[in-house]
Amino acid sequence: MKKLFFVTILIGFLFFYQSCDDNSVSPVINDRISKFIESQNLPKVQPYKISFFNDNENTAVFRVKYGEPFDCSAGCAYSTGFGLMHNNKINWLTFERLDNTDLTQMTYYDIDSSETYLLSDSFWNNLNDSDEWIYRYAFLPVLVKDEDIPLNVLYRITQDLYTYIYPYLGELLLSNKNVISSKEIIALLANLPVFQGDAYYNVREKAKGILNNM
């Protein structure tokens, strides 16, 4: 009886794992992602993985490994592309590059302020729950560098720096001309908390200088 129970649990686990690994989203989403990746001419592309999807919103975030393996003595690592599909748009968010593949011809996702789902707390929270790395290191930088993103969205991102230490994102915020013109956001950056090691020192000092000249 115990053996039967164990086998049942194991089968259930394998089914769950396989259903996630098989990219169990609508055929339309799968087809569009497959065709997009094929069109990019990346070398030695591996099967892509869905990190997040919402069929109702016709949205998916995916990752695909490509190229030659690296450091296989520790378990092979590969260059990886991270992409976003939403409605009729699909493009790259960023690449984690380990090889010398020419990426100069690649184009990247340009989030429009009308794409309200991509700017919503619902999408952000669910993406963060599904894949925190993509949310923080692939998706948020795209938003912060985009000068079409509304200030209230950039303000929300800035507030998050108070609880999640991310100096690079602070630097990106200061490179956005709309942020530099927003006294509210600059004030937030100028008063970022001092954590051990003071990772925000440079961001805070630059923001203070901008604030003093406003």
SSE succession: HHEEEEHHHHHHH
Question: How many β-strand stretches?
Answer: 4
- Percentage of β-strand residues: 15-25%
What percent of the residues sit in helical stretches (DSSP H or I)?
40-55%
Largest sheet: 4 strands, antiparallel
Name the strands of the widest sheet in spatial order: 1-2-3-4
- Which structural class do you get from the secondary structure elements? alpha+beta
Shape, please? Answer: globular
How many structural domains in the coordinates? 2
Short description:
It is built from 9 helices and 4 strands, in the order ααββββααααααα. By secondary structure, the protein is of the alpha+beta class. The radius of gyration is 20 Å and the shape is globular.
